[in-house]
């Protein structure tokens, strides 16, 4: 069957078959590698994205990967993921501890949400022990360093049946 004549329901089935995950990163994570390396290590966000793309390919997942220092932009990407993605993996960074707006956006997303933190929040200052995002997260990975993102991708793949 030619491209032009393929019925819309066939295209829809193909789209549903290839699973897609959105990974979002909050404020200051663009500085990974130079920011407090004793806590966050030497790995840059570009390194993390490259490792995630390799893992996503191996798992047969499509991947969107973003970072922003702006709360509204992260909220817009969570809303966009409602139409494009089967799961969200999010390191909200400092917004973890402050943002009801980000929590509300995530509550409007229907698929699994996995919260990732490079450091172990519970070993750190008490203000980092509370997470608004955790009220919505289906899973939380903290303290596994950058590898946490790859663990989250494996778990997301299992949850969405990829
Ligand atoms: C972080 C932990 C947050 O408390 C902090 O504000 C961050 C990074 C982590 O990945 O360990 O920016 O989310």
Overall geometry comes to globular
Tell me about the largest β-sheet.
5 strands, parallel
CATH class categorisation = Alpha Beta
Question: Total strand count, please?
Answer: 5
SSE order in H/E notation? HEHHEHEHEEH
Bound molecules: 1,3,4-trihydroxy-5-OXO-cyclohexanecarboxylic acid
Low-confidence stretches: 10-16
What are the key terms here?
five-stranded parallel sheet; alpha/beta; 5 strands; single chain; Rossmann fold; 162 residues
Briefly characterize the structure.
The chain has 162 residues and is α/β, with parallel strands linked by helices.
Describe the structure.
Strands 2-1-3-4-5 form a five-stranded parallel sheet, with helices on both faces. The chain has six helices and five strands; from the N terminus they run H-E-H-H-E-H-E-H-E-E-H. About 4% of the residues have low confidence. Strand 3, helix 5 and strand 4 form a beta-alpha-beta unit. The chain has 162 residues and is an alpha/beta fold. The structure holds 1,3,4-trihydroxy-5-OXO-cyclohexanecarboxylic acid.
């Amino acid at each position: 069957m030619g491209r032009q004549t393929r019925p819309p329901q066939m295209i829809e089935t193909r789209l549903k078959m290839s699973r897609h995950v959105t990974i979002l990163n909050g404020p200051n994570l663009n500085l990974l590698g130079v920011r407090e390396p004793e806590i966050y290590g030497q790995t840059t966000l570009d390194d993390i994205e490259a490792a995630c793309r390799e893992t996503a390919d191996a798992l047969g997942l499509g991947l969107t990967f973003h970072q922003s220092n702006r709360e509204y932009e992260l909220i817009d990407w969570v809303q966009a993921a409602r139409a494009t993605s089967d799961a969200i993996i999010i390191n909200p960074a400092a917004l973890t501890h402050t943002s009801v707006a980000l929590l509300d956006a995530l509550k409007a997303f229907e698929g699994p949400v996995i919260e990732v933190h490079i450091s172990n929040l519970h070993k750190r200052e008490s203000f980092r022990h509370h997470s608004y995002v955790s009220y919505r997260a289906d899973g939380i990975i903290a303290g596994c360093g950058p590898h946490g993102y790859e663990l989250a991708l494996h778990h997301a793949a299992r949850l969405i049946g990829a």
